[in-house]
Amino acid sequence: MGNAQSSGDNEVYPTIVPKKKPPTPYNFFDIQHTADLPSPTRLRKESTHTSSARSHTSNSNKSVKDTSNYFEMAAVAHEPSLLSKTSSPRGTTPASSIKKSYTQSSSQMYQLTPTSSRSSSTKTINTQTEKKKPPSNVSDHLMIDGRTYSKNHASKNFMLPCDDDEADRLMTMHYILKTMFQWNFISPIHESFSSGEKLKVLDIGCGPGTWIMEMATEYPNSDFYGLDECSLFPASIKPANAHFQIHDILKGPLPFEDEMFDFVYMRSMMIYLLPEELATLLSEIHRVMKPGAYLEVVDTNYTIRRAGPLSNSIINTELKQKMNPVGHVNTVESNTHHPIFTFLMMTQDHTLSFLGHFVDITQEHVAIPVGNWTGQQLDTLHTQNVKSFLSTIHLKERRLTTQEINEIIDECGRYNSYLDYFACYARKPSRQDNLEQNTIDSINEFVQGFVDI
């Protein structure tokens, strides 16, 4: 992948800026962590969105002091105020584009404080221990070094486990991302949920079902559907409005009727998809979405930022190329953008499958340290999560050794390294939208709207 760092890594963050007005320079990590537990009010994140609104920065000196268990706090967190989210009325026809960048310090982030009204949510999430069971069909799985892998992935360039330990890792990552992105989603659909409207929501690649379980408990009037080829999700102890189904998204269409869902969510799935597979999946997602529905994709580009020589060589170059040699792009864009943006930069046919069917494309991103150099609980959990990922990913040619992984983590601590996580949402045009004009606007603004630094 080449060197993931740019000359501006230590001076300016984020790494995507608009042509007209770049964001104010600052050191992201100088004020990110100020308490024993992660302090939501100190979060800085980048948002890239289509709107004529000026770039702005809001500051807050508030802090949260709480000695509660981290996972309990994340599980029972309040939904953020509607004012803290960008809302886009479904009836309007804004030009579809990648929305302009700005940097902000969020002062409206939810408080991670347990409340009696959320006690049922905690109990519901805790019932996921029910998943502790062997795979549904042992013959469909392989045992490698004591870990369970799916045979369906044996022909791929890499495999990740399909077992309880992997479910625990994914659950931990869920709470980390929920904290950093301030809630379980960034799409502007809070009003629809809060109004009691009966929505239908799909989670593609739901893993242990943590996101579905939380959302189903928080919004009991809506129905939530989770798909995954590995049955790590709960089979019986779950809310009545949570539904799970085993399904391989690469082996057939989504098992739902046309225009069924108001919201489709997908997280940590991009590394499994080749460009043509992603294009097919996006077409299927578009088919099952109602007009005006939102799609949200949350992922990382698996690039160590402020990488030392070992991290840059093994993670940013060797590992990324082995995970997806066809989709491997040797440009800085693949290091600094949401994976779906890299996808859009590839071939025109694949790009049109997305830009031609979605509008109001918006990106936000956060950065999370790797290497225990901040001393904060959330960053320690994230470092452990990265270490677990590196130790269990089974590459076709070879696995990373324990010594290599330990040296990479130590180096990340010395270099103050971090990983970027991106959330991108887009809207399926309503029947009143001018899709042809939106498509032209999307392509033009996407091509012309960004410069590298």
From TrEMBL:
Region (Disordered): 1-66, 81-141
SUPFAM superfamilies according to UniProt: S-adenosyl-L-methionine-dependent methyltransferases (SSF53335)
Record Gene3D superfamilies: Vaccinia Virus protein VP39
A GO molecular function held by the record: methyltransferase activity
One Gene Ontology biological process: methylation
Compositional bias ranges of the Low complexity kind: 49-62, 96-127
Residue ranges of coiled coil: none
Keyword annotations of the record: Methyltransferase, Transferase
Designated name of the protein: S-adenosyl-L-methionine-dependent methyltransferase
